[in-house]
Amino acid sequence: MIIQQITLKPFAGIANKTLQLQSGLNVILGPNEAGKSTFFRAVQCALFLPVKARKNSREWIEAQRIIPVDGDTATVELRFTLRDKPYVLEKSWGAFQETKLEIPGGTVLRDPDSIDTTLGHVLPAPEATCRSVLMAHQGGLPETLRHIESDGTTAGSLGDMLRSAVRETDGISVEAFKEKLDAEYKRYFSRWDRLHECPENNRGINKPYVKDVGEVLGAYYTMERTKAALEQVRKYEEERDRLVTGIAHVRAAMDEHERFLEKNRPVLESARERRTLEAEREAQKAGLTTMQADNERWPVAEMESARIRGQLPELEDKLERLIGEQETAEHSATTASLREQLSKATAVKESLKKAETVLRDAPCVTGDQIESIRSLGERVSRLEASMKAGKLTLAFTPRRSCPVRVRRDLAEAQDSTIAAEEESTIQAGRRITLETEDWSLIVTSGDPADVEELQAELERARGELTSLLTTCKVGSYEEARDKAAAYATAHQEVASQQKTLALILGDTDYTKLMERVEALGPRSETRPLSEIVQERTEAVHAHKEAMRRERELIAEIESLQETYTDKMSLLLKVAETATREKSLRESIDSLAPLPPDCTDPSAFLEKFSAMENEFRSLQQRHTELSLKRAGLEGSEPEESSEDLETALVEANERLRNIRRKAEAVARIAEVSDRILSESDTDTFAQLERELVQTTTAMTRGKYEEITMNDAFLQGVVRPDGAAVEYDLLSGGTKDAIALALRLTIASYFLRSSGGFLFLDDPLVDMDPDRQAAAAKLLASFASKKQLIIFTCHPSHARLFGDGENLIVFRGPNA
Amino acid sequence: MPLTILATSDIHLGMKFTGYPEIQEELAQARFSALQKLVTQANEHDCDVFIIAGDLFDRLSVTKRDILQARQILGEFQGALVAVLPGNHDFISPGESDLWSRFSESTAGNVLVLAHQNPYPLMSSLDIDACLYPGPCTSKHSSVNTIDWIPPKTDRDSCRFHIGIAHGSLQGLSPDIQGNYFPMTPEELRKHELDLWLLGHTHRPWSQGNVYNPGTPEPDGFDCDHQGSAVLIQMQENGSIESQSVPCGTYLFEHASETVESVSDINRIASHFRRESYQRTILKMTVDGRLSKTDYDALGELRAAVEENVKHLYSFQSHVREEISSGDIDAEFTEGSFPHRLLTALCNDPEDAEALQTAYQLLGEIRS
Fold first, then answer.
1. How far apart, in Å, do the first and last CA atoms of chain B sit?
2. Which residues from A are below 8 Å from B327, CB to CB?
């Protein structure tokens, strides 16, 4: 953006004047009050001051200052180009307010917002940057340096210094802001644990902080105290409600008791008398009942006693009879036993006799004999078998019939006749003997001598066996064995019978027993003993019962006699008691009646007494509760729960609002810290180089380096290496450094666009050499950007070369 | 004969107003003034009965002076009877020495404390063909109402007007979430088949059918957003009821929430609160909205203007934010400068609006 023409028509103290500007260097020379600053201000107003503003606002006040004294409207026309394209901006303030911007192509914008938007695009930098960097008075530069010097925490290097210079271009010290922010943070968060959202060290209202209480904590304490107070008041109100309800209940109960007591007190005495009389009447009634019963009982007892006494002899006779019958039956039972013993002994004796006969008749074959018979039998059998063991067959056929005798082995010879020419066959074991009348033929199997010997042994054996059987009177071994068994049985039977007989007889013998039985005489008949005993037991019991009952009756009668003396006396007493009972009943009926719901005077009196006791307890309870209530109400809170509920809502709302504001401060701190910690080293390294070059040029090589200590601009270094402290530098050198800084920063903001820089008397306080150097440097700057220099010093103006760039002001309206 | 009643409730004489120290005394005294106005109005309308449906007094421990002053005002009623129902703030303890025994000691014959749950027939003593059925409170809180004792229509003595008087929350009208304030329901009221119900406890005036809640005659806080009134009731022989509101409050409590978008809004609001009626208003004001930088300064003038005109500005809560755009930041701060970077960073996130506003103010304070 290159400003080409500024026309004031009118503006502030200038009625109508135009200033033509070039794209490079422009030097405007004029004495003080000639109107140079008016043009400077006119450009600022044209670019940034709205024509409409609320009355008394900052903008309105500024507008008032530019309105001519003799008019009501101030107008500025500003012609400028952007990339060689023309723009015309015209603004009027005061009575006639107007803004218009003619843009390339001839279109005229009149809407302030559209115009501001368009200007935003054509201006070399935003408004504030323009104001503070590109259009600032020179006097602002030392101020910037003073900030830098005092800002020990931000300027650690030349880059830092430049950074600070940029940061603080608006005249706002970061340090001052941080101090302010810290103070704000402390004002809100002092003693508040923001992380845990509670007081530091969790110190609540029971042990609150007193000093350095921040607004958040203060609001928190207020809220907590209100909450605690509300709880306290609620407790108070609940306790009071509990007490008054308790008192009301006690009072209601007292009233009920009192009503009962008052209502029933009049019948209290009569109830007591009624209780006494009714007790006596009950006693009389009980006595009368007893006497009436005794009166009925007495003759009955006497009659019963007499009857029992009459029954006793009969019972005693029966008992005596039964005793005799029992003795007889017991004797009969004894003789029957002897007779039965004899009978049994006789029977056994008969059996014994028979057994003895059998034993006597049975042949006695001994065991040895039986063994011998068996042995001989076996021998005979073996020999016979041996004889039969051979196999002889003799066949012959007689020529003529002939009688023959054939003997086979040991068998008996058999006689027969064999017909002529009849073949006869004879078979045997070891020997066949065939005899005819004419001859005798013996055929043997084997050695005839052995057969002969065998046959002889057989015949001997047979003879011995036959002899033994004969001795034993038996025909065979089996018979001998059977007879031996029969003998043993008979012998055993005899022994058994003898034993049975001895058992029956015991320590007597049969004869003596028979003599005793004969001495008993004939048998007598009785009832069964058990029957007699049963009847006797019953009779004894009946007798005893009769005796006991009689004793009882006698005792009863004696008791009645002792009580009443006699029956007549008893009758008299019955009459007397009945009369008394009637009298008592009449007395009771004459008493005041009990309450309708009460029939028993004792129960009534007990209830009355209980009600009296309860009433006293209730009175005591009432007193206790009333005292408690009075004590409680003595410490009645100033505010009600409703008041405190409202207060708590407000306290909570206040705490929320304060916390919202406090969090905003915390957020600012967070963002600030982040911004201040951001690194933009590269940007400022380039600026640093430019600043050193500019400074060297400005001081004409007198100083080649700017030195920094840890904190701030320390000074400059000469080419010979000697360092000169900043404080020891001349005012001109300081201004040179400031101008160098200004040009460097302006270059920084105009680095990417064309634009202008206004400077107001930049060479003041410099020596002529430095002025020349500075002028050269400024001319160099003007070769790249539009530079508009105001000066009241003609010598300074001349330093910028020929007059083409020079505009001379002679007076405001000249 | 028709029956004319002036009904009120919740006068809360003796209320301390500790939250309003600057005007505490005036607010407290205004409640007596309201009672005085009502008695005057009742006399002007020839009322037969003046009924207070609970909470004549704010607390049991009101001073003797307050009791005497109340008595003196009520004593000026020229009708037949002033009937006072103990409410939950000035509940009665029957048979005990309490506020009401002290009050009764100092009252004349035409003031009746409705102390018991029983009918109060007015015919024999006052020649008024009416019977009152009160539900006096006997504690500050109760989950049970006090009207259950009222006998059914068939068991009641004959008279022309049967009037129920109770104090407690009414379903649909009063906020009583925990049911601690003698809660009643419209069905329960209807069930008793009375000719008129007069209720107290809810400070807002309300009526429906034959049920009247007069509300407090003098507003006592910001939850009481009306001018304070009682109700004048005329019961006709034919059973019809006519009523009219009787305004009597001195002060108004108002919570104004305003939104400003421009200085014209500020001027409009300031002008609104210059009305004369606001000279009796205790105002709590909340302002929000966004103002341009040029208009923002005028916000302070709004507060001053409002404070100057209302009776008492209880609080002025401003959530108004200065409209700070990135263009504004560019216009005011040098690009790359710390303020520019800080404000630009905060300008990016709408959640940082408060921080942006605060930062802008802090920077402005430093710059100035």
1. 78
2. 116, 120
Mutation for B interface: A113, A129, A134, A641, most B CBs within 10 A: A129
Cis, peptide link before residue B121, omega less than 30° from 0: no
What is the sign, positive or negative, of the torsion defined by CA atoms of A339, A345, A346, A351?
positive
For the segment B186-245, what is each residue's pLDDT rounded down to a tens digit? 999 999 999 999 999 999 999 999 999 999 999 999 989 899 999 999 999 998 999 999
Residue from B174, B285, B338, B361 to probe the interface with A (highest A Cβ count within 10 Å): B338
Q: How many CB atoms lie within 10 A of CB A255?
A: 13
Sort out which chain A residues have CB atoms less than 8 A from B342's CB and list them.
Answer: 668, 671-672, 675
Distance (Å, whole) CA A437 – CA A454: 27
- On whether the CB atoms of residues B246 and B218 are closer than 8 A, the answer is no
With beta carbons less than 8 A apart as the criterion, state whether A425 and A418 touch. no
- Residues of B with Cβ-Cβ distance to A53 under 8 angstroms: 294
For residues A585 and A278, is the Cβ–Cβ distance under 8 A? no
> How remote is the C-alpha of A94 from its chain's centroid?
82
Contact A667 B352 (CB under 8 A): yes
Token representation of residue B316: 């002025």
A-B contacts (CB, under 8 Å): 164
Is residue A198 classed as helix, strand or coil in its secondary structure?
strand
Backbone angles phi, psi at B218, to 5 degrees: -135, 110
ipTM of this complex: 0.90
Chain A residues in contact with B352 by the CB 8 A cut-off are 664, 667, 671
In angstroms, the CA B135 to CA A745 distance is 86
Q: Which residues pair with B4 in a beta bridge?
A: B234
Q: Are A426 and A393 in contact (CB under 8 A)?
A: yes
User: Quick one: A636 exposed, middle or buried, by C-beta within 10 A (0-12, 13-18, 19+)?
Assistant: middle
| pLDDT tens-digit map of A60-107 | 888 999 999 888 999 999 999 988 899 999 999 999 999 999 999 999
CB-based contact, B96 to chain A, within 8 Å: yes
d(CA B240, CA B261): 52
Q: Is the separation of the CB atoms in A98 and A3 below 8 Å? A: no
Nearest CA distance, A80 vs chain B (angstrom): 20
For residue B197, give the nearest of B38, B80, B85 by alpha carbon. Answer: B85
Q: Is A672 within 8 Å of B297 when comparing Cβ atoms?
A: no
Handedness of CA B29, B32, B36, B42 (dihedral sign): positive
A679 CB burial (10 A radius; 0-12, 13-18, 19+): exposed
Disruptive mutation site among A47, A58, A116, A169 for chain B (greatest number of B CBs within 10 Å): A169
pLDDT in tens, B64-94: 999 999 999 999 999 999 999 999 999 999 8
User: Which chain A residues in 600-629 lie under 8 Å from chain B, judged by CB atoms?
Assistant: 626
HSE-CB for B226 with a 13 A CA cutoff: 17
Closest CA to A96 of A70, A116, A67, A55: A67
Distance from B189 to chain A by nearest Cα, in Å? 25
| Distance, CA of A20 to CA of A805 (rounded, Å) | 10
Q: Measured between beta carbons, which residues in chain B are less than 8 angstroms from residue A643?
A: 18-19
Give DSSP secondary structure letters for A581-596.
HHHHHHHHHTSPPPPT
**Which range has the worst mean pLDDT, A298-307, A356-365, A727-736, B124-133?**
A727-736
Cα(A486)–Cα(A488) distance, integer angstroms: 5
Cβ <8 Å between A671 and B355:
yes
Contact assignment for A663 to B354 by CB distance below 8 Å: yes
Residues 658 through 697 of chain A touching chain B, CB cutoff 8 Å: 660-661, 663-665, 667-668, 671-672, 674-676
